Amino acid sequence: MTRRLAIACDHGGYTLKKAIKARFSDIEWLDLGTDSTESVDYPDFGDKLASAIERGEVEQGIAICGTGIGISIAANRNPAVRAGLCTDTEMARLTREHNDANVLALGARITDEATALDIVETFLNTEFEGGRHARRVDKLS
User: How far is CA 85 from CA 26, 31, 36, in A?
Assistant: First the structure.
């Protein structure tokens, strides 16, 4: 069964989005834009990704902007989303294990491509631990 994830970015994240999709070509991507480096507003794309999760189109997604901050704030406005901004693989592992994050946020201007691809790999291959963490995650809803 092919895994399906959403991916969305603003103009600052466009190049990294293309690299992620190329590296993880075995994933069925619901690409929510943007489709160029022309200036757009990151809240629009964070909202598109969050809405896709809320509607059940996908269970997880990746959101990218220049720093990852703005698009993660936008996505996290939706109660169906737990977006974690990660700058290294340890953060990616912990945001999945402890926070059951369903959205990985990346900053294309602050994280080099090779590191970002490692972060995505870790995020995709790490399971939620549950246990004591489940009680805490439940309080986020």
Answer: 24, 19, 23
* Contact predicate 138/82, CB 8 Å: no
Structure confidence by residue, pLDDT tens digits, 99-132: 999 999 999 999 999 999 999 999 999 999 888 8
- Catalytic center residues: 65, 98
The arrangement of secondary structure in 4-138, i.e. its CATH architecture, is 3-Layer(aba) Sandwich (3.40)
Of residues 29, 23, 34, 22, the one with CA closest to residue 3: 29
- The residue count of the chain comes to 141
Task: Please report, for the chain, the start and end positions of each structural domain, with discontinuous segments joined by +.
Answer: 4-138
Separation of first and last alpha carbons in the chain: 29
